[in-house]
Amino acid sequence: MDDTSRTPGAQVVSRVAAVLRALSAAMPDGENTTELARAAQLTRPTAHRLLSALTSEGFVDRDPQSGKWLLGPELYLMGTVAADRYDVTDIARTHVAALAAATGESAFFSVRRGGETVCLERQDGNFPIRSFVLHEGKRFPLGVASAGLAILSFLTPHAVDAFLTESRLEDDFGGEHAETAIRARISETRRTGYAVNPGLIVPGSWGLGAAVFSGSGQPAWALSLTGVESRFSPERIPELGRLLLEHAHQLTEQLARK
Length: 258
Hints:
By secondary structure, the chain is α+β, with helices and mostly antiparallel strands. Helices cover 50% and strands 19% of the residues. Helix 3 (33-40) crosses helix 4 (44-56), helix 6 packs antiparallel against helix 11 and helix 7 crosses helix 10. One of its GO terms (molecular function) is DNA binding. Keywords: DNA-binding, Transcription, Transcription regulation. Residues 10-73 form the HTH iclR-type domain.
């Protein structure tokens, strides 16, 4: 038994956190109780009780027409206060915009949170056909989508081994996310410097990602591009990869100075 399981109330806190993370991933449209319960791995009655309690405290809101749950105003206020310490999106936004403008694709900035990446910023280029696999607030496990693969690839070997041992990504994302397949993509990412997602989440939707490093040299964020398969030809991928790496390097240096 670990320390968390022996701490009074820790299970409730863990369940509340799971519900809020699931709700965050469903923004901006919100989600119904059944789907939030499934995403948080809770029973529907438990999820409903937690959501109702969070609503009374202002952490969650509910749309009276659709019945869907939404993040509440109290979280916005807390996030505003915390932003001074943690938010680097304003610095990254310039690079996201430049990538979208230069490539015509959708560009993103994501942050690592434990074993996941969370999208913080999206900007679309001028190419009319877009992929909507990734959007602000969307979470993916490390190793899934190009941003998460880029970050996972540059963790220490011990951290990579621990993550792949604990997470069975193929159960949720199919055989292409089995450990051997991910390790092969990690090796390729380390060779080129950027990660490629060849339509593994949604067929025809491709992505490239490059890690952005903290001052201590850890891959803490990622810049990425997504678009339709025809826009990610073998001839164009190296060009997009070089552009991503240039911006990732510049952003790493800016964040180190911050």
